[in-house]
Amino acid sequence: MSSSAQIAPPLHPFQAAAVANIKAQAVALRPDALETISHICRMSNVPIETLDDVRQAIAQHARIALHFHPDRPSLSGHTVVEALLEDGRYKNQFETGISNGLLATQLGGLRDDWERSLFSGAYHGSSVPETAENAFNPALRPKYGALDLVRNSDGPAPRFGSCYFLLRPEVSSRSTFTYGGSQAAPKDVGTVDEFDAILAALLEECFTRDTALGVNNVRPRGMLELIKGLSKSTLVEADYKRLPSRNLDHLIEAQIHGDVLLSRDVEALVVDPSFFLRGDTGSLLEALGETYGFPLFSHHGFEMQAESCPGDFRGPTMPSLAARVAYQGKVDVQAIGESVRNLVADAEQWADRGTVAEVLQELKLLWHVLVRYG
């Protein structure tokens, strides 16, 4: 444990049961996972003993990233960064009413159903003697991030936000993981101390596709070396000035159980540099780091000429939307965020493009375009 880390309080029984249920699933997956790992290591000429160092690097040095868009409006009327600055706590979508994936915050909705299935009913009272009504406490539900094993400069899951917190490795001990997004009910799950099923899936992807987690032309040996390298380097801004991965779809999803306190759990914040060009979001992000005691790094950033927006990646409406939201002919995350705020404040001016929900979805897709082509 790092010297500056504070110990989190014990998990609520629902949360502890969720972690235990995933660990039990991972234990059941272990024999097949070890067989896969052994085969791939043999075919890749990797000593099986290397895996001990890899497991240790993941447990002690891998960080979960929480992606977010700081300038988006929240239910409180504040922007996300304003709410974070005021509360000092990273909240889940059941609490905030916003999401950069699918927004489904009601009991019996899609997210609730996914969590019931993934955690074997732990958050619905199946493991402890409480009612389902008491079980639906929004603050108890997990927060979603992605495990950062390869330090892509734009983070492990840029699809879900232009900025990201890097959490202290200690947070992983109360987290669960899936290889891929949990909405797809992936079969490979794990905890930081029972990780072999996810490691097997990662190595299999490298072995069969020569790519994984946004890293191209990587074989199993190279991926294992990247992971082992986590133990040999500290967080420095130079790491985040590299070209972005533009990885929209491939991640190890992390579900964090228990509170995420900025002062206790965040080790660094990586942001899109466009927030320092105009508006006050950049200064609020700086204040966030100063208030809660973590460094702020800027990554390479995303910017695109509106006229170069493709119409064959996220649909034919993207070029006209890019032209509409552009600032001085360019699209960046600030331009998209300003349009989101304008839409929420005055839906009528966007009515020609559809309902609020439809336009929000369009703007979300434009962010995907910017990540891939900006």
Explain what the structure shows:
With 374 residues, the chain is of the alpha+beta class. Helices cover 39% and strands 14% of the residues. The model has no long low-confidence stretch (mean pLDDT 91). Helix 12 (333-345) runs antiparallel to helix 13. An 8-stranded mixed β-sheet has the order 6-5-9-3-1-4-11-12. Strands 2-10 form a two-stranded antiparallel ribbon. Strand 7 and strand 8 (215-216) form a beta hairpin. 44% of the residues are buried. It starts with 12 loop residues before the first helix and ends with a helix. The chain folds into 2 domains: 13-298, no CATH class; 303-373, no CATH class. It contains 13 helices and 14 strands. It comes from Hypocrea atroviridis (strain ATCC 20476 / IMI 206040) (Trichoderma atroviride). InterPro entries: DUF3626 (IPR022074). This is DUF3626 domain-containing protein.
